[in-house]
């Protein structure tokens, strides 16, 4: 709780007055299982990118380029939807 | 004596007329006895083009308060009105209005909550939501209802407060009885309430803002703390509004009203229309040399603790009248609050509680007189034999 603001410093009524600041909210800390990709098998179909509920699949030059682990909450949907089963869910080591 | 220009109005008409002069941007309301005439009369003003209000005739009170929350967040000055089961149906959103800090003003015509079903006056509806974070104002008569409705706009929108306000009047007793009212000049009302401006309205598309997001363990507590602090701030901010009201309209109000209390040995604490009956009985007793007085809290939330303590400091025996039962087995809500306030102060009059008038049971001068007789007995014996009494209920 160290960096959290006091009641005097936050907008009243639970309003969020800064658009898009959800990006600063680190949902990656919720994760129990971590998606990892086997690059050799990946066919870059981008199904994982379409299905990820947290926009945590990175894409570069139309290719699947890994995961945004700050926001990936480890739901495993990408691993489940991948047609070539190249994503493994590995237990996070505490 | 200058002749006053009095207009015959019921309490409900008084509210509707105040709303006409306020001309809110949005009114979303559903009719319910005994508030119906507020919605009815105000709808007439809308239909006649006498106000510019966007009137939303909703299908339930839950929707009424929901629409009010949306409108107020969008940046509109917003009002509604309700009673009893209507208030109960909007309950969920009543809390959301307060915690989202939306300055909605809601006249409430007090009526007993079901069941058994009953349409007449008691305070169980608004007392039930005394912890909802709304400011509560209780009015003695239609004149006060009219004035407090106007006053409530400035209280709700005060920068240090930003909380919704309920303006309560007694169902049928005040809402349907005709009184001669002194009305204010339209322009004066407009000047007093001023422009409605809130920070971060939803309709300011250049500065997008989110209302009502999920708020978990990390910040919910801080937002509740802010609400608590706003209610405390209201204790110092409301007098500013009252001063401005007095300057504009020449009417002086306070959190409480006292009647022949300065030298009183025995006193009744009562809210709303019953206070009028108590004043009548006090006058009779005073003629017989009994030192009786009245204390009437006008603003119940925030609870004006200091004012109440000061008012009661010389009184030896006090009876608190509650027009609702809180089923704590310890007495009504006003009684327990007043006792709690006195505890810290060290001022300890002999104190007792009378639950009365539930479901519209009439309260007559003879009932009030009985309370003063009890108080005289308590004064003589120095003992409160029955702290919790049911005044007017058959034994
Ligand atoms: S595990 Fe869930 S959140 Fe993480 S990348 Fe895969 S689909 Fe997205
Ligand atoms: S779904 Fe599988 S194959 Fe398709 S892009 Fe994602 S990881 Fe690669």
Defining traits:
heterodimer, A: 94 residues, alpha+beta, Alpha-Beta Plaits, two-stranded antiparallel ribbon, two-stranded antiparallel sheet, 2 helices, 11% helix, B: 395 residues, alpha/beta, Rossmann fold, 2 domains, 6-stranded mixed beta sheet, 4-stranded mixed beta sheet, 15 strands, 17% strand, binds iron/sulfur cluster
What's the CATH topology name of chain A?
Answer: Alpha-Beta Plaits
Strand order of the largest sheet of chain B: 9-11-10-13-14-15
Give the termini distance of chain B in whole angstroms: 50 Å
Shape of chain A: elongated
Q: What can be said about the biggest beta sheet of chain A?
A: 2 strands, antiparallel
Largest sheet features of chain B: 6 strands, mixed
The number of helical elements of chain B comes to 13
CATH fold field value of the largest domain in chain B:
Rossmann fold
Which architecture name of chain A does CATH use?
2-Layer Sandwich
Task: Give the ordered list of helices and strands of chain A.
Answer: EHEEHE
In terms of DSSP E residues, the strand content of chain A is: 15-25%
Number of domains of chain B: 2
Shape of chain B: globular
Backbone structural class of chain A: alpha+beta
Ligands: iron/sulfur cluster
Structural class by sheet pairing and helices of chain B: alpha/beta
Biggest interface reads: A-B, 14 and 23 residues
Number of helices of chain A: 2
The total tally of domains of chain A equals 1
Low-confidence stretches of chain A: none
> What's the total count of β strands of chain A?
4
């Amino acid at each position: 709780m160290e960096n959290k603001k006091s009641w005097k410093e936050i907008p009243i009524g639970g309003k969020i007055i800064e658009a898009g600041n959800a990006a600063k909210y680190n949902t990656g800390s919720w994760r129990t299982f971590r998606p990892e990709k086997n690059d050799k098998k990946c066919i870059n179909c981008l199904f994982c990118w379409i299905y990820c509920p947290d926009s945590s699949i990175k894409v570069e030059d139309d290719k699947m380029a890994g995961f945004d682990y700050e926001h990936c909450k480890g739901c495993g949907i990408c691993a489940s939807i991948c047609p070539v089963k190249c994503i493994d869910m590995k237990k996070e080591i505490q | 004596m200058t002749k006053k220009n009095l207009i015959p109005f019921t309490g409900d008409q008084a509210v509707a007329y105040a709303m006409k002069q306020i001309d809110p941007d949005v009114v979303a309301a559903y009719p319910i006895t005994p508030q119906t005439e507020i919605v009815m009369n105000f709808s007439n003003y809308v239909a006649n083009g006498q106000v510019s209000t966007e009137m939303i005739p909703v299908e339930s009170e839950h929707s009424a308060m929901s629409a009010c929350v949306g409108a107020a967040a969008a940046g509109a000055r917003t009002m509604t009105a309700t009673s009893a089961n209507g208030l109960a149906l909007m309950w969920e959103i009543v809390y959301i209005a307060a915690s989202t800090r939306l300055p909605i003003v809601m006249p409430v015509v007090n009526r007993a909550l079901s069941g058994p079903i009953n349409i007449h006056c008691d305070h169980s509806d608004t007392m039930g939501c005394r912890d909802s974070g709304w400011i509560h104002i209780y009015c003695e008569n239609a004149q006060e209802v009219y004035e407090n409705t106007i006053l409530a706009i400035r209280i709700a929108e005060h920068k240090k407060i930003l909380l919704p306000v309920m303006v309560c009047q007694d169902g049928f007793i005040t809402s349907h009885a005709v009184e001669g009212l002194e009305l204010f000049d339209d322009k004066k009302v407009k000047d007093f309430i001023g422009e409605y401006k809130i920070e971060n309205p939803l309709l300011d598309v250049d500065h997008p803002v989110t209302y009502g997001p999920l708020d978990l363990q990390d910040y919910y507590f801080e937002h509740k703390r802010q609400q608590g602090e706003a209610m405390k701030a209201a204790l110092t901010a409301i007098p500013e509004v009252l001063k401005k009201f007095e300057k504009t309209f020449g009417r002086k109000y306070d959190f409480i009203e006292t009647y022949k209390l300065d030298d009183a040995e025995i006193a009744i604490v009562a809210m709303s229309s019953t206070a009028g009956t108590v004043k009548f009985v006090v006058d009779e007793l005073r003629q017989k040399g009994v030192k009786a007085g009245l204390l009437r809290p006008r603003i119940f939330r925030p609870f004006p603790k200091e004012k109440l303590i000061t008012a009661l400091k010389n009184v030896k025996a006090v009876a608190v009248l509650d027009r609702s039962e809180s089923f704590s087995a310890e007495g009504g809500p006003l009684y327990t609050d007043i006792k709690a306030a006195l505890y810290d102060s060290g001022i300890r009059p002999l104190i007792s509680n009378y639950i009365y008038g539930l479901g519209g049971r009439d309260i007559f001068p003879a009932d009030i007189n009985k309370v003063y007789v009890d108080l005289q007995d308590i004064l003589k014996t120095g003992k409160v034999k029955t702290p919790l009494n049911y005044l007017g209920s058959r034994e």
